[in-house]
Amino acid sequence: MDQLAAMRAFVRVVETGTFTRAADLLDMPKPTVTKLIQQLEGHLRAKLLNRTTRRVTVTMDGAAYYERALRLLDELSELDASLTLAQARPSGRLRVDCSSSLAVSVIIPALHEFHARYPDIQLDLGLSDRPADLIGENLDCAVRAGEIVDQSLIARRIGEMQLITCATPDYLARFGTPVHPRDIEDGHQIVAYRPALGGRVLPLIYQNQNETIELSGRYTIALNDGMGYLAAGLASHGIMQLPTFMARVPIADGRLVPLLLDWCAAPKPLHIVYPPNRHLSNKVRVFVDWLAELFAREELVLSRNADSLPGCLPEILPAIPTPMPPKARQLSSNSSA
Protein backbone atom coordinates (compact mmCIF):
# COMPACT_ATOMS: atom_id res chain seq x y z
CA MET A 1 0.00 0.00 0.00
CA ASP A 2 1.18 3.52 -0.84
CA GLN A 3 0.33 5.04 2.54
CA LEU A 4 0.93 8.66 1.47
CA ALA A 5 -1.38 8.23 -1.53
CA ALA A 6 -3.98 6.61 0.73
CA MET A 7 -3.73 9.45 3.25
CA ARG A 8 -4.13 12.06 0.48
CA ALA A 9 -7.15 10.19 -0.89
CA PHE A 10 -8.72 9.95 2.57
CA VAL A 11 -8.20 13.68 3.25
CA ARG A 12 -9.78 14.58 -0.09
CA VAL A 13 -12.81 12.35 0.52
CA VAL A 14 -13.37 13.95 3.93
CA GLU A 15 -13.04 17.48 2.53
CA THR A 16 -15.28 16.95 -0.50
CA GLY A 17 -17.77 14.53 1.06
CA THR A 18 -17.82 12.20 -1.95
CA PHE A 19 -15.53 9.63 -3.56
CA THR A 20 -16.42 10.93 -7.02
CA ARG A 21 -15.38 14.51 -6.30
CA ALA A 22 -12.23 13.37 -4.52
CA ALA A 23 -11.27 11.22 -7.50
CA ASP A 24 -11.76 14.17 -9.85
CA LEU A 25 -9.55 16.43 -7.74
CA LEU A 26 -6.87 13.76 -7.40
CA ASP A 27 -7.09 12.99 -11.13
CA MET A 28 -7.46 9.26 -10.56
CA PRO A 29 -10.25 6.72 -11.16
CA LYS A 30 -12.90 6.41 -8.48
CA PRO A 31 -12.21 2.67 -7.97
CA THR A 32 -8.58 3.55 -7.19
CA VAL A 33 -9.68 5.99 -4.49
CA THR A 34 -12.05 3.38 -3.05
CA LYS A 35 -9.27 0.76 -2.99
CA LEU A 36 -6.84 3.16 -1.29
CA ILE A 37 -9.36 3.91 1.46
CA GLN A 38 -10.07 0.22 1.97
CA GLN A 39 -6.34 -0.52 2.19
CA LEU A 40 -5.86 2.31 4.68
CA GLU A 41 -8.72 1.07 6.88
CA GLY A 42 -7.28 -2.44 6.72
CA HIS A 43 -3.82 -1.19 7.63
CA LEU A 44 -5.18 0.79 10.59
CA ARG A 45 -7.70 -1.89 11.56
CA ALA A 46 -10.26 0.87 12.02
CA LYS A 47 -13.29 2.09 10.12
CA LEU A 48 -12.66 5.67 9.00
CA LEU A 49 -15.73 6.37 6.86
CA ASN A 50 -19.39 5.38 6.85
CA ARG A 51 -20.55 5.02 3.25
CA THR A 52 -24.09 4.93 1.89
CA THR A 53 -25.38 5.35 -1.65
CA ARG A 54 -26.03 9.05 -1.00
CA ARG A 55 -23.34 10.35 1.34
CA VAL A 56 -20.09 9.75 3.15
CA THR A 57 -19.68 10.54 6.85
CA VAL A 58 -16.58 10.42 9.02
CA THR A 59 -16.37 8.12 12.04
CA MET A 60 -14.85 9.28 15.32
CA ASP A 61 -11.66 7.37 14.47
CA GLY A 62 -11.74 8.91 11.01
CA ALA A 63 -12.07 12.45 12.37
CA ALA A 64 -9.08 11.96 14.66
CA TYR A 65 -7.03 10.41 11.85
CA TYR A 66 -7.99 13.24 9.47
CA GLU A 67 -6.59 15.93 11.78
CA ARG A 68 -3.28 14.09 12.22
CA ALA A 69 -3.02 13.17 8.53
CA LEU A 70 -3.70 16.74 7.43
CA ARG A 71 -0.95 18.09 9.68
CA LEU A 72 1.47 15.44 8.45
CA LEU A 73 0.75 16.15 4.78
CA ASP A 74 1.10 19.89 5.36
CA GLU A 75 4.44 19.41 7.11
CA LEU A 76 5.63 17.19 4.26
CA SER A 77 4.63 19.79 1.68
CA GLU A 78 6.34 22.51 3.69
CA LEU A 79 9.49 20.42 3.95
CA ASP A 80 9.56 19.83 0.21
CA ALA A 81 8.89 23.50 -0.50
CA SER A 82 11.55 24.76 1.90
CA LEU A 83 14.24 22.81 0.03
CA THR A 84 13.17 23.97 -3.42
CA LEU A 85 11.74 27.45 -2.83
CA ALA A 86 15.01 29.31 -3.24
CA GLN A 87 15.85 27.91 -6.68
CA ALA A 88 12.41 27.09 -8.05
CA ARG A 89 10.52 29.38 -10.39
CA PRO A 90 6.82 29.57 -9.49
CA SER A 91 5.01 27.27 -11.87
CA GLY A 92 1.95 25.14 -12.34
CA ARG A 93 -1.79 25.60 -12.30
CA LEU A 94 -3.15 28.34 -10.03
CA ARG A 95 -6.89 28.25 -9.27
CA VAL A 96 -8.36 31.59 -8.19
CA ASP A 97 -11.96 32.70 -7.61
CA CYS A 98 -13.02 36.33 -7.99
CA SER A 99 -16.08 38.45 -8.71
CA SER A 100 -16.55 39.09 -12.42
CA SER A 101 -16.72 42.87 -11.97
CA LEU A 102 -13.40 43.14 -10.12
CA ALA A 103 -11.69 40.72 -12.49
CA VAL A 104 -12.93 42.45 -15.66
CA SER A 105 -12.27 45.99 -14.44
CA VAL A 106 -8.98 45.63 -12.55
CA ILE A 107 -7.30 42.22 -12.59
CA ILE A 108 -7.58 40.94 -16.18
CA PRO A 109 -6.26 44.17 -17.79
CA ALA A 110 -3.09 43.85 -15.67
CA LEU A 111 -2.44 40.12 -16.16
CA HIS A 112 0.18 40.71 -18.89
CA GLU A 113 2.41 42.08 -16.16
CA PHE A 114 1.86 39.03 -13.94
CA HIS A 115 2.58 36.58 -16.75
CA ALA A 116 5.69 38.53 -17.75
CA ARG A 117 7.03 37.98 -14.24
CA TYR A 118 5.83 34.40 -13.86
CA PRO A 119 5.49 32.82 -17.32
CA ASP A 120 5.29 29.27 -15.96
CA ILE A 121 2.08 29.84 -13.97
CA GLN A 122 -1.19 28.80 -15.62
CA LEU A 123 -4.04 30.83 -14.14
CA ASP A 124 -7.52 29.34 -13.84
CA LEU A 125 -9.72 32.33 -12.95
CA GLY A 126 -13.26 31.49 -11.88
CA LEU A 127 -15.62 34.46 -12.10
CA SER A 128 -18.63 34.54 -9.81
CA ASP A 129 -20.14 36.69 -7.08
CA ARG A 130 -21.01 33.48 -5.24
CA PRO A 131 -18.50 32.73 -2.46
CA ALA A 132 -16.83 29.53 -3.60
CA ASP A 133 -16.03 26.54 -1.40
CA LEU A 134 -12.25 26.81 -1.49
CA ILE A 135 -11.58 23.31 -0.18
CA GLY A 136 -14.44 21.52 -1.92
CA GLU A 137 -13.62 23.15 -5.27
CA ASN A 138 -9.86 22.75 -4.82
CA LEU A 139 -9.15 26.48 -5.10
CA ASP A 140 -5.84 28.00 -4.10
CA CYS A 141 -7.25 31.39 -3.10
CA ALA A 142 -10.10 33.83 -3.70
CA VAL A 143 -10.59 37.59 -3.80
CA ARG A 144 -13.61 38.70 -1.77
CA ALA A 145 -15.24 42.03 -1.03
CA GLY A 146 -16.91 42.85 2.26
CA GLU A 147 -16.42 41.31 5.66
CA ILE A 148 -15.28 37.69 5.77
CA VAL A 149 -18.14 35.49 6.99
CA ASP A 150 -16.21 32.20 7.12
CA GLN A 151 -13.81 32.80 10.00
CA SER A 152 -12.01 29.52 9.32
CA LEU A 153 -10.35 31.03 6.24
CA ILE A 154 -7.04 32.86 6.37
CA ALA A 155 -7.61 36.41 5.11
CA ARG A 156 -5.21 39.14 4.02
CA ARG A 157 -6.73 42.58 3.66
CA ILE A 158 -5.38 44.26 0.53
CA GLY A 159 -7.55 47.30 -0.07
CA GLU A 160 -10.90 49.02 0.19
CA MET A 161 -13.56 49.36 -2.46
CA GLN A 162 -15.04 52.85 -2.69
CA LEU A 163 -18.68 53.17 -3.78
CA ILE A 164 -20.38 55.88 -5.81
CA THR A 165 -24.06 56.57 -6.48
CA CYS A 166 -24.99 56.86 -10.16
CA ALA A 167 -27.87 56.93 -12.61
CA THR A 168 -28.21 57.42 -16.34
CA PRO A 169 -29.06 60.80 -17.91
CA ASP A 170 -32.28 59.24 -19.23
CA TYR A 171 -33.34 58.11 -15.76
CA LEU A 172 -32.60 61.54 -14.26
CA ALA A 173 -34.55 63.25 -17.04
CA ARG A 174 -37.60 61.16 -16.12
CA PHE A 175 -37.33 61.08 -12.31
CA GLY A 176 -35.22 64.11 -11.41
CA THR A 177 -31.85 64.41 -9.69
CA PRO A 178 -31.69 63.72 -5.92
CA VAL A 179 -29.73 66.32 -3.96
CA HIS A 180 -29.99 64.53 -0.60
CA PRO A 181 -30.01 60.78 0.17
CA ARG A 182 -33.55 61.05 1.58
CA ASP A 183 -34.74 62.21 -1.85
CA ILE A 184 -34.18 58.65 -3.11
CA GLU A 185 -37.07 57.49 -0.93
CA ASP A 186 -39.41 59.98 -2.59
CA GLY A 187 -40.48 58.58 -5.95
CA HIS A 188 -37.16 57.15 -7.11
CA GLN A 189 -36.40 53.62 -8.24
CA ILE A 190 -33.40 51.60 -7.08
CA VAL A 191 -31.32 48.91 -8.73
CA ALA A 192 -30.54 46.65 -5.77
CA TYR A 193 -27.77 44.18 -5.12
CA ARG A 194 -28.61 40.95 -3.33
CA PRO A 195 -25.69 38.82 -2.09
CA ALA A 196 -25.36 35.52 -3.89
CA LEU A 197 -26.06 33.52 -0.73
CA GLY A 198 -29.49 35.12 -0.40
CA GLY A 199 -30.85 37.28 2.36
CA ARG A 200 -31.95 40.88 2.15
CA VAL A 201 -30.77 43.28 -0.50
CA LEU A 202 -27.89 45.52 0.50
CA PRO A 203 -29.03 49.00 1.58
CA LEU A 204 -27.60 52.25 0.26
CA ILE A 205 -25.52 53.77 3.06
CA TYR A 206 -24.44 57.43 3.21
CA GLN A 207 -22.33 59.27 5.76
CA ASN A 208 -21.28 62.82 6.53
CA GLN A 209 -19.81 64.40 9.63
CA ASN A 210 -23.17 64.52 11.37
CA GLU A 211 -25.15 61.44 10.44
CA THR A 212 -25.35 58.07 8.74
CA ILE A 213 -28.34 57.32 6.52
CA GLU A 214 -29.33 53.80 5.48
CA LEU A 215 -31.85 53.47 2.68
CA SER A 216 -33.63 50.38 1.49
CA GLY A 217 -36.18 52.04 -0.75
CA ARG A 218 -38.25 50.41 -3.47
CA TYR A 219 -36.20 48.50 -5.99
CA THR A 220 -37.31 47.66 -9.52
CA ILE A 221 -34.82 44.84 -9.89
CA ALA A 222 -32.36 43.07 -7.57
CA LEU A 223 -29.35 41.19 -8.93
CA ASN A 224 -26.67 38.94 -7.44
CA ASP A 225 -23.96 39.61 -10.04
CA GLY A 226 -21.88 42.77 -10.36
CA MET A 227 -21.82 42.92 -14.15
CA GLY A 228 -25.58 42.34 -14.29
CA TYR A 229 -26.03 45.04 -11.66
CA LEU A 230 -24.12 47.53 -13.82
CA ALA A 231 -26.07 46.51 -16.92
CA ALA A 232 -29.38 47.13 -15.13
CA GLY A 233 -28.24 50.59 -14.09
CA LEU A 234 -27.07 51.42 -17.62
CA ALA A 235 -30.50 50.33 -18.86
CA SER A 236 -32.04 53.13 -16.73
CA HIS A 237 -33.82 50.82 -14.29
CA GLY A 238 -32.92 53.05 -11.35
CA ILE A 239 -30.33 54.59 -9.08
CA MET A 240 -27.46 52.34 -8.03
CA GLN A 241 -24.42 52.40 -5.77
CA LEU A 242 -21.48 50.63 -7.33
CA PRO A 243 -17.68 50.41 -6.98
CA THR A 244 -15.78 53.33 -8.46
CA PHE A 245 -13.63 51.04 -10.60
CA MET A 246 -16.81 49.91 -12.38
CA ALA A 247 -18.22 53.42 -12.69
CA ARG A 248 -15.06 55.10 -14.03
CA VAL A 249 -15.58 54.46 -17.75
CA PRO A 250 -19.38 54.94 -17.99
CA ILE A 251 -19.09 58.22 -16.03
CA ALA A 252 -16.28 59.44 -18.27
CA ASP A 253 -18.19 58.70 -21.47
CA GLY A 254 -21.45 60.18 -20.19
CA ARG A 255 -23.52 57.02 -19.82
CA LEU A 256 -23.71 57.52 -16.04
CA VAL A 257 -23.99 60.65 -13.91
CA PRO A 258 -22.42 60.62 -10.41
CA LEU A 259 -24.80 61.69 -7.65
CA LEU A 260 -24.60 62.87 -4.03
CA LEU A 261 -20.86 63.51 -4.11
CA ASP A 262 -21.10 65.49 -0.87
CA TRP A 263 -21.92 62.26 0.93
CA CYS A 264 -19.54 59.39 1.63
CA ALA A 265 -20.47 55.76 1.19
CA ALA A 266 -18.79 53.39 3.63
CA PRO A 267 -16.04 51.53 1.72
CA LYS A 268 -16.01 47.74 1.50
CA PRO A 269 -12.82 45.91 2.46
CA LEU A 270 -11.11 43.67 -0.07
CA HIS A 271 -9.44 40.45 1.06
CA ILE A 272 -7.51 37.59 -0.43
CA VAL A 273 -8.52 34.40 1.36
CA TYR A 274 -7.10 30.91 1.28
CA PRO A 275 -7.85 27.66 3.11
CA PRO A 276 -6.46 27.03 6.59
CA ASN A 277 -4.12 24.15 7.36
CA ARG A 278 -2.70 24.24 3.85
CA HIS A 279 0.86 25.07 2.91
CA LEU A 280 0.97 28.35 0.97
CA SER A 281 2.78 27.35 -2.20
CA ASN A 282 5.22 29.61 -4.00
CA LYS A 283 2.81 30.22 -6.89
CA VAL A 284 0.05 31.31 -4.50
CA ARG A 285 2.42 33.53 -2.52
CA VAL A 286 3.65 35.43 -5.59
CA PHE A 287 0.09 35.90 -6.87
CA VAL A 288 -1.11 37.23 -3.51
CA ASP A 289 1.84 39.63 -3.35
CA TRP A 290 1.30 40.78 -6.94
CA LEU A 291 -2.41 41.35 -6.34
CA ALA A 292 -1.69 43.39 -3.22
CA GLU A 293 0.80 45.46 -5.22
CA LEU A 294 -1.75 45.94 -8.03
CA PHE A 295 -4.47 47.14 -5.68
CA ALA A 296 -2.05 49.42 -3.83
CA ARG A 297 -1.40 51.42 -6.99
CA GLU A 298 -4.92 51.23 -8.44
CA GLU A 299 -6.29 54.69 -7.68
CA LEU A 300 -9.89 53.50 -7.34
CA VAL A 301 -9.05 50.51 -5.15
CA LEU A 302 -7.41 52.16 -2.17
CA SER A 303 -4.77 50.38 -0.14
CA ARG A 304 -5.71 50.20 3.49
CA ASN A 305 -4.69 53.02 5.81
CA ALA A 306 -5.69 52.18 9.34
CA ASP A 307 -5.26 55.80 10.49
CA SER A 308 -7.58 57.34 7.89
CA LEU A 309 -11.31 57.77 7.89
CA PRO A 310 -13.32 56.73 4.82
CA GLY A 311 -12.52 59.17 2.02
CA CYS A 312 -15.17 61.05 0.13
CA LEU A 313 -15.54 60.52 -3.58
CA PRO A 314 -14.47 63.95 -4.88
CA GLU A 315 -10.99 63.15 -3.57
CA ILE A 316 -10.65 59.90 -5.51
CA LEU A 317 -12.36 60.89 -8.75
CA PRO A 318 -10.48 64.06 -9.69
CA ALA A 319 -9.78 62.97 -13.26
CA ILE A 320 -13.32 61.94 -14.18
CA PRO A 321 -15.36 64.72 -15.75
CA THR A 322 -18.83 65.06 -14.30
CA PRO A 323 -21.30 65.22 -17.20
CA MET A 324 -23.89 67.97 -16.96
CA PRO A 325 -27.44 66.81 -16.16
CA PRO A 326 -29.73 66.71 -19.21
CA LYS A 327 -31.46 70.04 -18.42
CA ALA A 328 -28.14 71.79 -17.85
CA ARG A 329 -26.80 70.53 -21.18
CA GLN A 330 -29.92 71.80 -22.92
CA LEU A 331 -29.62 75.28 -21.33
CA SER A 332 -25.94 75.44 -22.24
CA SER A 333 -26.73 74.55 -25.84
CA ASN A 334 -29.48 77.20 -26.07
CA SER A 335 -27.30 79.95 -24.61
CA SER A 336 -24.46 79.22 -27.03
CA ALA A 337 -26.90 79.40 -29.93
UniProtKB/TrEMBL annotation:
Residues 1-59 form the HTH lysR-type domain. InterPro entries: LysR-type_TF_proteobact-type, LysR_HTH_N, LysR_subst-bd, WH-like_DNA-bd_sf, WH_DNA-bd_sf. It comes from the Bacteria. The keyword Transcription regulation applies. Keywords: DNA-binding, Transcription, Transcription regulation. One of its GO terms (molecular function) is DNA-binding transcription factor activity. The keyword Transcription regulation applies. Belongs to the LysR transcriptional regulatory family. This is LysR family transcriptional regulator. It comes from Bosea spartocytisi.
